[in-house]
Amino acid sequence: MSLDWNAAWRQQVLPTLADETWDLIVIGGGISGAGILREAARRGWRCLLLEQRDFAWGTSSRSSKMVHGGLRYIAKGQWRLTRDSVRERQRLLDEAPGLVEPMSFMMPHYRGGFPGPRVMGGLLTVYDALAGRRSHRFHTAQQLGYLAPGLKDHDLLGGTCFVDALTDDARLVMRVLSEARADGALALNGVRVQQLLRENGRVCGVQVEDSEGGEPLQVRCRTLAVATGAWAERLRPTDVPRQLRPLRGSHLLLPGWRLPVAQAFTFLHEHDRRPVFVFPWEGATVVGTTDLDHTEDLDQSARISLEELDYLLAACAQQFPQARVGAADVLSTWSGVRPVVGSGEGAPSNETREHVLWQEPGCVTLAGGKLTTFRPQAIEVLQACGAMLGREVVDDGAPVFAPVVALPLSSVSARQWRRLAGRHGRDLPRLALLLAELGHDTVGASDTLWAELALACDTEMVLYLDDLLLRRTRLGLLLPEGAAQYLPAIRRLCQPRLGWSDERWLAQEARYRALWQRHHGLPDATH
Hints:
The protein is 35% helix and 23% strand. The chain has 527 residues and is α+β, with helices and mostly antiparallel strands. The chain has three domains: 7-59 and 170-243 and 352-389, 3-Layer(bba) Sandwich (FAD/NAD(P)-binding domain); 80-166 and 245-338, D-Amino Acid Oxidase, subunit A, domain 2 (D-Amino Acid Oxidase, Chain A, domain 2), CATH 3.30.9; 414-519, Orthogonal Bundle (Helicase, Ruva Protein, domain 3). Strands 3, 4, 5, 6, 11, 12, 13, 14, 15 and 16 form a ten-stranded mixed β-sheet that branches. Strands 1, 2, 7, 8, 9, 10, 17 and 18 form an eight-stranded mixed β-sheet that branches. Strand 12 and strand 13 (275-281) form a beta hairpin.
């Protein structure tokens, strides 16, 4: 594994991809593709991942940030999905502290509302049994006055509290890719698969093009795994029936001081009785999510609509009426497209979140699925690929993440060390050197250190400015106007490390500002 996993290394390795036949090529750089690559590399497979945009560019940087068992799936009879989810949630909490963290969730109950305390308590008893530990309790209305000031209190009976988890989904992808690379895998962004290569009715490779220029390249493999989320049907034969139903989920991010919450709240929206969440994340407050059919071009970043903005603001007004949250309070927005395998009929929220595998000789496509269960999904894909290779793949329960070396970082609090270890894992020693060089200052009011920006430029394959500000870090979401105030200082630190000319930096900055305004700012009336 190269220490400096960056654009210079990328240009060196790209022409060599065709020099061998890979055991496995993975298409898609989200959490599903990263998980498949990690499990294959751990087993000694010679494997390569190709991502057309950036790692976590699609759904895996725009989820609701929750690592959860899916409490509502119990009510729909999806026992296996819930069981697997709560077990994987606990695994991630144990293996990646600081990146996946427990979070208390509160569901308030109101007179005449559903579900009431008894029904909710019953569901959570089953939920806890599947997880193997009890984590819920009921609080009276009087107790909620202290635990949740500002919560709507008219007809309030009390609230049920349970525990799930939150993460930074894009950083989770980067950690998983880091583990795969440590075991010998290669991963490249900005490489688009133009078509699959077939011989004698079997997939045997891919033809790719580099977004940075250069001639198309043919790369051969023994098996191929397609994990492209909402794009999963793009590379399938045209005569196969379409089964994906792309669903958009949009979110608002508010300054933490504007709607301060110490735990997550989940409640049913008065408009359509869908569950909505309000929770603290990275020092800010997230409000989400919607669940709508996404009919726009998948090759363009999803964006929030005026209707979704109004829907989420109405949720704030419903549950926290005294806060009087309005559109002017919104720091940023994001929208992701869920790759749901569905019937296409009925309400989007009623579609199953189960995943399926589509197979043809030499190729396995993963469709659907959840972030939380990326590891067992990856093993299922490898078992299907292994059958084509004559290799048995067993789920031996081995860890996804290697333990993080405990480094003494001077002037770093225990909380900050936990955060850095969780987000950077194997790269913590390199980060320690950068901290000694650059100091421990954070960028504005965020928890992100300037040294983390430098680390991303040096070793995390940043090709575009939005890679750096929206996925390697979350500064573009957490700071006003996409961190516009800090762009000059970011340029001074990062331009030399990225090796960009003045012309390229200015072009990247203009591109980033336009992208942020369109896809992470407030929607306009023409949207």
